[in-house]
Amino acid sequence: MAERPVAIPAPVAEHRLADYRPPAFLVDTVDLIFDLDPKATRVRATLALRRNPAHGDAAAPLVLDGEDLTLNAVAVDGVALDAAAYRLGEHGLVIADLPDACTLDTDVTIDPAGNTQLSGLYVSGGDFFTQCEAEGFRRITFFPDRPDVMARFSATLVADEARYPVLLSNGNPVDRGAMPDGQAWVKWVDPHPKPSYLFALVAGMLVSVHDEFITASGRTVALGIYVRQGDEDKVDHAMVCLKRSMRWDEEVFGLEYDLDIFNIAAVGDFNAGAMENKGLNIFNTALVLARPDTATDADYLRIDRVIAHEYFHNWTGDRVTCRDWFQLSLKEGLTVFRDQEYGADTTDASLSRIEDVLRLRGFQFREDGGPLAHPVRPPAYRKIDNFYTATVYEKGAEVVRMIRTIIGADAFRRGMDIYFATNDNTAATIEDFVGAMHEASGYDFTQFMRWYDQAGTPAVSFAGAYDAEARRYTLTLRQATAPTPGQAEKAPFVIPVALGLIGPDGQDLAGTIDGETVAGTRVVLLTEAAQSFVFTDVAAAPVPSLFRNFSAPIRLSGYDRAQLAMMAAHDSDGFNRWEAGHEYAVQVLLEAIAAHQRGAGFTLDDGLRDARAAALDQAAAAPALAARLLGLPGASTLADRMAVVDPDAIHAVLTAARRAIGGALQARFQAIYGQTAYDGAFAVDPASVGRRALRNACLAYIMAGDEAAGIALAQAQIAADTTMTESLTALALLVDTTSPARDEALAAFHARFQGDALVIDKFFAIQAMSSAPDTLARIEALTRHPDFDIRNPNRYRSLVLAFGYRNALWFHDASGAGYDFVARMTLAADQVNRSVAARGMEVFADWKRYDPARQDKMRAALDRIIAANDLSPNTREMAERVRH
Ligand code: ARG
Ligand code: ZN
Q: What protein family is recorded (predicted)?
């Protein structure tokens, strides 16, 4: 080996999609040996390396990523390298003059117990866990830590047998043994090539619950869920969800599980929700553990979705992964689409779609309309951890959905088959996915690709004209997308519009377009800035029901109240029936907010009240839908529609509306509340979930209309101690009051659930979201509560982010104290966990949409964060983008 200096490439401040270059070396196999010790774990790695002809430079050095590693030794083909033969920097290791194929051995020491970033190998509750996506594997060993390097892995875990009886990694255990000093070892081999971000290791004193799944082709898969002792009675639901997901993917996509073992491990300290490591998913405990008395129905549903999501990644993510992190939506958007479809198929399709769209609007539209807006495929990033966003995930799923809407379900399914056949065991791009869809359908996606490359939510408006004599209806649609950071000009999108024409009797009307007569829902494509669609043989003047089932992620405007009321009552599309009622409520409440700002009092709109009364008529037949229809648009939905957001006016009007509806329909709410009492059996079927949701909605209106009656019922509901769904809503309603019942109930709740971390998270979150006047002082006090721990992401999120995201009233308190609280907590969190701290900057993202006084205070909070000289690059990137 020539001893000449090797330049260390400067760490790239900004990564650009346009700069993609294939890796200089590929790794065929990697064999790892872990000597697990909390303070000093030794990792020995053997890499079989091969030059990659696709890189283009046959003399390129080997560049290995590495972070927070202590290098003990490095050898090439068995010969130890002396320090002159490599360059070791803060970001990795560079070795020049390597042969075209060689074996590299490295030996490093890491400190899992000191790893508060929770990226790489870390300790939680005394046990070992990993999180490697996106760039955590480089914190375990030196490696080309990029997803287009796919290798076959083995991992030998060596640990004290008494303390770490469970030793898990990807694939199958092939060998094990004991050593004289009380150490034991297990060797795992994963037969499938995978990128380093899918590596996982779990070691500890865990208990497990086992089951099995017989695949469509008759293979038996051993299923295991590993949790801490005492939690084993909270995994039944997750196991049911896992088996249901495995079956669904076989039935709907023809995708079978491909290993003999599928394990899930739950960890209480976790930066994200869950992780799809091959054969060994690692989950935040919040997304595994559920028992009726500790988890709400919303938790049960979320767990179902996330179990499905991570399982579905086995094909969309693991078997076909991403070439680079710009393609993140290739796996995330597609997998969210798949988990949404699973949810629609296994629960109520319309309700499931409504919840998904509310989530999209609540997070993604907000992101897309502010300084953090970025395309589904971002062109550049500083820290990839900052791009696990609602846009990449939820908008990415909508883009996949639009592809299916445009080419049809059959062609879409064929396209999926082609995608797997063509890209199996490779690291693919979004072009590969869309190319498969083109091959299956013949559709030209050139213009459609703008959905991946242009940020921003298109605004769509419409106008209709009916010519009675000609029986002709002309629908004109217009689209426009506002500029987003770095993209001043927007070209028109291809927007699939699923629509129906509703006649005066409320029924769908037939109409002919492009020679085709359809009476129900059809799809037209809006491809220009403005475009007219002419329907002939239309019997009467219709109301167009547009974007049925939310066929595109756009903002639609143009309906008047009479049209909305008609559609809410009659639209044949379940989603649009809800949507029309929701839009009606938004318009009425925005008007009430404007009146409030002029100093006028609140008067309850008859239509708003009557729609709630009509929902109560459906209470017995469709309780879940009734509960959904009873609700009012949230504060963030109203804020989203105001030119200058006025959080005090929004709160005042929402409170007044709830009080007025609760007063007007008090007797009916009380009656239905009485009829929906606990029926003795806990089940998560739609009828039971619906009953509880309806009961809770009634309780909230009873409380709003008659506080004394509400407090008494809430106390009784808690005392009945039926399910967390019922207890938590009752507690949250009490926490919004200043009644002495509040502190009594909180103290009792804390005492009852002390030691159950996930329930204590709820204890923090409901206080953080309270509208009570002393909330700011109380959340300050909660930071000094013995159960508050800034190092635990769930606890941090349950106090700081629940406050920032879900307490518009007090976060935006005119004093600026709410901003100051989040800024201080962010700076403190940044010292321990930069990825969790960075996410908190999102709560400031719409700062320019407030009045000048609040803008000044939010800008000052951001400037204080940016001025901190030891700020992490993660939080710096987010704060600077938001501040811009
Ligand atoms: N791939 C995981 C999932 O969506 C999430 C990983 C999150 N990683 C991160 N750095 N935020 O299922
Ligand atoms: Zn995912």
A: Belongs to the peptidase M1 family.
Residue 671's CB is within 10 A of a number of other CB atoms, namely 14
Strands 426-428 and 320-322: parallel
Query: Taking a C-beta distance cutoff of 8 angstroms, is the pair 306, 286 a contact?
Result: no
CB 703 within 8 A of CB 669: no
Helix axes 396-407, 409-423, angle to 10 degrees: 120
Question: Is the pTM higher than 0.95?
Answer: yes
Residues 505-547: tens digit of each pLDDT:
999 999 999 999 999 999 999 999 999 999 999 999 999 999 9
Note the residue count of the chain. 884
State how far the alpha carbon of 128 is from the alpha carbons of 200, 301, 419, 539, 735, in Å: 10, 28, 36, 69, 37
Query: Is residue 212 helix, strand or coil?
Result: strand
CA distance 872 to 867: 12
Strand partners, 206: 228
- Residue 194 forms beta bridges with which residues? 151
ipTM: 0.99
Pairing type for strands 25-35 and 41-51 reads antiparallel
The pLDDT tens digits of the residues spanning 188-240 come to 999 999 999 999 999 999 999 999 999 999 999 999 999 999 999 999 999 99
Bridge partners of 224? 210, 263
Amino acid letter, residue 270: F
Looking from the CA of 9 toward its CB, the CA atoms found within 13 Å total: 14
Tokens of 589: 């409440």
Q: To test ligand 1's pocket by mutation, which of 135, 145, 275 has the most ligand atoms within 8 angstroms of CB?
A: 275
**Is 591 one of the catalytic residues?**
no
Where is 475: in which H helix or E strand? strand 472-480
